[in-house]
Amino acid sequence: MTDRSIAHGTFVLERTYPASPARVFRAWADPEMKKRWFGDGTGSGTKIFEFREGGRELVESGEGAGSFGFDVLYQDIVDNNRIVYTYQMTMGGQRISVSVAAVELFADGSGTRLTVTEHGCFLDGLDTVDQRKRGTEGLLDALGTELSRN
User: Fold this and answer.
1) Torsion angle in degrees (nearest 10) through CA of 97, 100, 103, 104
2) Is the model more confident about 24 or about 64?
3) Does residue 82 have a pLDDT over 90?
């Protein structure tokens, strides 16, 4: 019998971007903008993109044992203010985590302070809070690059 486990973890990340809350929000809501900063680079990418409360987003990358899936359900969206979603991550078709994430946007001078808070259940030793935090940091850096485009 395989040992089964759950490691619980929470992290909070904050970034300040030189863009309005409306522009930062649009980077999450617009499929073309999101593809540029959230894309997986493998060519498989986004299968479903329904950015609305109750909508789903599905991103898949790779093939076989090296494949990853990001399957989202949007729970709460307030334009230019917040995005709350639940999601599961898979690796090789096996669920490795289930999380709830909240993205909050705050006007900060002429820019935006963005806060991401994530609570995760990391399953069977296949994923960790530290790995997820590092991955999210990379995504937020890529978002900053996207927001610096004209």
Assistant:
1) -150
2) 24
3) yes
Mean of all residue pLDDT scores within the chain: 93
CATH fold group of domain 6-147? Alpha-D-Glucose-1,6-Bisphosphate; Chain A, domain 4 (3.30.530)
β strands within the chain, DSSP E: 6-17, 46-49, 56-61, 68-78, 82-91, 94-108, 111-123
* pLDDT of residue 14 exceeding 80: yes
Position 67 pLDDT exceeds 50: yes
Position of tokens 């030189």? 18
In the chain, count H helices and then E strands. 3, 7
Who's near 115: CB < 8 A, 6+ residues apart? 12, 13, 14, 102, 103, 104, 106
Between CA 63 and CA 79 the distance in angstroms is 35
